[in-house]
Amino acid sequence: MLIFLCISYSLRLTGINAYTGIINATFLSKRKITGQLNSNPIFTNVPRFDQISFSLHKMQFYEIAFSVYRGFAHKLSISNCIFSNSISPIHISTSESGKLKPINSKIEYKNQDISLRDTIFDFCSSLSENGGSVYAEMCKISFIGVEFVHSMAQNGGAAYLIQGKVNLEGCSFYKCSSKINGGAMIAKECKLSAKKTFFVQNSAGSCSGAFSHSTGISNMIDCYIYENKATKGYGGISLEDIAGEYIKVKFNDNQSPVSEGGNSLNIISTADDFFVEECVFNGGISYISYPNDAIIHVTDSCFDVNIDKSHTMNGDPLPNSVDPFKKPYWGNNYYFGQCSPAPKLPPKYYKELFHYTKTAPVIEWWKLYIILAMFVCLVLFLYFIIPAVFFPLIADGAKIRGESKNIKI
């Protein structure tokens, strides 16, 4: 077994590939460090001293049959990595989580400063647990430029987040699925902030095809919720005991057989004011549903259906309200015939340019180009330099030898 024993302020591993069969895992690096691991996490439990940090950079993991990182974490940074066909790669937990706290109470984050940047989770799963790619408790966790593709789990197909502060920026959740709830993600007791993030073609066996967020603050700006579906209800997003705001969020063709479930945005309850501003709803009916005591404000948004079908309150059509003191409040919205078509997604979602090979390492083309350039230089050297320099010398030597034979003594 390969054992990392390190006494230092930080540990950083870079440029390493990891491959595994059914039983063992082998590490390969420039130094040809090798080792075998049997059914245990590769890395675990970052020490919680303030100066200790752990970083994974430009690493590639293929078909890892157990978590790459499992345990608690103080400062964990993962960047420019690929996790493919692996089981629950990142599982950050603490025994102190699980007890729900009121929305306004201060949460002490036992796991601190978790950062994932420019990383890909491709066909990762956790079919017996929650969170197919990432499970995190009590974290300040940041996802920047992270892609989740075909992740699968019981709940929260790609990510399952509990009691944390979560930031999503420039991320993609594509074709992720869950057996029960939260096709792409589930967040509980979290302060969630999402910007320019895509939830596309995710699915849930029960409810919340895109994601579910309960108890906390939910803020989204300029995000896309497209073509998600759930079998029993809430094809898009489901919110419970939530406050916050959704600004310039685009909803398109989110589906569920339960038509009165708010196919794009279902609000079970609100903890405080919730604002929906400048959002676009296309492809379906009953876009928003909520109870009659919800504190919700819907303004400057666009619905491609008639006014009486754009939203429901307890399953019944709700007439448009123009009284800002009456809650729920609807004002200055646009309806069928006044809205533009749904914005198109970036080309990569139509071409499915996501899936990476299961076991083949990424080819470092720049190295091949350098080798090819060196070979060309060698050929040119042999072709031009050697004849130009050595052939005249050989000819001169032969001439000198010939002249020496003609000298008379």
Automatic annotation (TrEMBL):
It comes from the Eukaryota. InterPro entries: Pectin_lyase_fold/virulence. The chain crosses the membrane at residues 368-395. Residues 1-18 form the signal peptide. Keywords: Membrane, Signal, Transmembrane, Transmembrane helix. This is Right handed beta helix domain-containing protein. It comes from Tritrichomonas foetus.
